[in-house]
């Protein structure tokens, strides 16, 4: 008799796949992405990605602004590490201008860039933990991030939209007590790194969600244009800082952590290891850098000091020309690339020889990652979307431009 | 390193190369657009080049120049660490380029972005839809003749367009590639 009762349950019931709309207002999709999922039970069999809910017309705005006025827009690309975008753009324009920046500027860009990377990775790790229920890990990571942002705020004067980079230099030098403050922050960051390892790395709930989910193969990663941690987690050691050193990355010693499986766990571990490497880079930079100018002395590019503007006619003319007409960049085009928070950040810029860019195309890693994200979701479970989407570290501002 | 890739393209596709130069660390070849997919495929598969990564596809609108558009492919080899920019010129009245979707996973997405922003179509693309803008958007905003302050007509609410499997499939598969209701 008992078998008869259970028979209907064992039968293959004809059922249609279910369509589930995830986002854009789902908290895990950051309010900017929609996944139209086709589910069979809990399994995702098809995923249609839709982005663009935040589109602000970054490239169009840039074409209407002078070269220097683009900096505030680049802040709003990856707002978790805006300095990296600032410097990436500045480097692209400098390449087109054919100018070199002073040595100290390069050291400072390396330091501030790595601080931003710390902020980026800490946010990603913390938020990833939070969405799997690890509130404590999140609070620690955010404490670390806030300490980093305190340093950035002290130097740049702003907390989120820093606009610190300049063509041919920087807005300001580091503050005199930067090294001491870094020493304090560094100590706490190392502690937080250890605590995070203890809280997450061998946590059963965390491991079950992270190991073997969201797997990318090296071939697929390369074909889909993945860069940064997403690609390195598969074992491909491509890092722009190492392969094509810019700023002072060629003069400091650091390792490029790679993963083996390309799953969520590897991406998490790569980020954890990169935190250590970033701290190493900053330490070396502070030890090696020397006092000196931070802005290029090329009068076509650098704004003159206020004493010159008020007291000399050349200074005043130069100031007016740069502010009103913009820096005159010679005609031509260049593709310049740096290592952003989530991967290769490229700027393809075209100049027609005036003070405004003719075209700026940004190769934003987040947008390109979204092109292949359905491959990571399909075949997995609905619940795996949360950690996978977290470790991919898509940033809405950069994705939608 | 610089000249090697340009020479490679010239050697194998000499007739298709319209221009080549090496400036500011970027090697560039301008090629005939009808053969661009073949050239990129060769660059990807040949042992000497191994351009296994497509960094970006974008387009530049030179408004007053003839031909008006230029589609730019930036190729990179992770193993060989070299980069090549392949450009094709596209006239306004015949605004299309063969797709390279079958060569790189990311190309489909990037080509959608170029179509969305510039209105350049990619022949043979399996799913050419807008990516950043909504489907009812009229025009292509990164064209130089699209005014920055231009506004779009108000949309009707879409209603229950995608509430069943059938409707969803129709939406995904049978959507015309024009990307605009008016077209």
From TrEMBL, chain A:
Domain NADH-quinone oxidoreductase subunit D residues, every copy: 132-401
Catalytic activity: a quinone + NADH + 5 H(+)(in) = a quinol + NAD(+) + 4 H(+)(out)
Family matches, as Pfam families: Complex1_49kDa (PF00346)
Keyword Phosphoprotein assigned: no
Matches recorded under SUPFAM superfamilies: HydB/Nqo4-like
Gene Ontology molecular-function annotations: oxidoreductase activity
Keywords annotated in UniProt: Cell membrane, Membrane, NAD, Oxidoreductase, Quinone, Translocase, Transport, Ubiquinone
Protein topology in the membrane: Peripheral membrane protein
Keyword Transit peptide carried by entry: no
Enzyme Commission number(s) of this protein: 7.1.1.-
Enzyme class, spelled out: translocase
Places the protein is found: Cell membrane
Function text: NDH-1 shuttles electrons from NADH, via FMN and iron-sulfur (Fe-S) centers, to quinones in the respiratory chain. The immediate electron acceptor for the enzyme in this species is believed to be ubiquinone. Couples the redox reaction to proton translocation (for every two electrons transferred, four hydrogen ions are translocated across the cytoplasmic membrane), and thus conserves the redox energy in a proton gradient.
Family: Belongs to the complex I 49 kDa subunit family.
Record note on quaternary structure: NDH-1 is composed of 14 different subunits. Subunits NuoB, C, D, E, F, and G constitute the peripheral sector of the complex.
HAMAP family according to UniProt: NDH1_NuoD
Name of the protein in its database record: NADH-quinone oxidoreductase subunit D
Naturally occurring in which organism (per UniProt): Lujinxingia sediminis
From TrEMBL, chain B:
Principal localisation: membrane
Keyword Translocase on entry: yes
Topological type in the membrane: Peripheral membrane protein
UniProt subcellular location: Cell membrane
Keywords (A to Z) from UniProt: Cell membrane, Membrane, NAD, Quinone, Translocase, Transport, Ubiquinone
NADH:ubiquinone oxidoreductase 30kDa subunit domain mapped to chain residues: 29-149
InterPro entries (alphabetical): NADH_DH_suC, NADH_quin_OxRdtase_su_C/D-like, NADH_UbQ_OxRdtase_30kDa_su, NADH_UbQ_OxRdtase_CS
EC number: 7.1.1.-
Reaction catalysed by this enzyme: a quinone + NADH + 5 H(+)(in) = a quinol + NAD(+) + 4 H(+)(out)
Assembly and binders: NDH-1 is composed of 14 different subunits. Subunits NuoB, C, D, E, F, and G constitute the peripheral sector of the complex.
Entry similarity comment: Belongs to the complex I 30 kDa subunit family.
Task of the protein: NDH-1 shuttles electrons from NADH, via FMN and iron-sulfur (Fe-S) centers, to quinones in the respiratory chain. The immediate electron acceptor for the enzyme in this species is believed to be ubiquinone. Couples the redox reaction to proton translocation (for every two electrons transferred, four hydrogen ions are translocated across the cytoplasmic membrane), and thus conserves the redox energy in a proton gradient.
PANTHER family reported for this sequence: NADH DEHYDROGENASE [UBIQUINONE] IRON-SULFUR PROTEIN 3, MITOCHONDRIAL (PTHR10884:SF14), NADH DEHYDROGENASE UBIQUINONE IRON-SULFUR PROTEIN 3 (PTHR10884)
Name of this chain's protein: NADH-quinone oxidoreductase subunit C
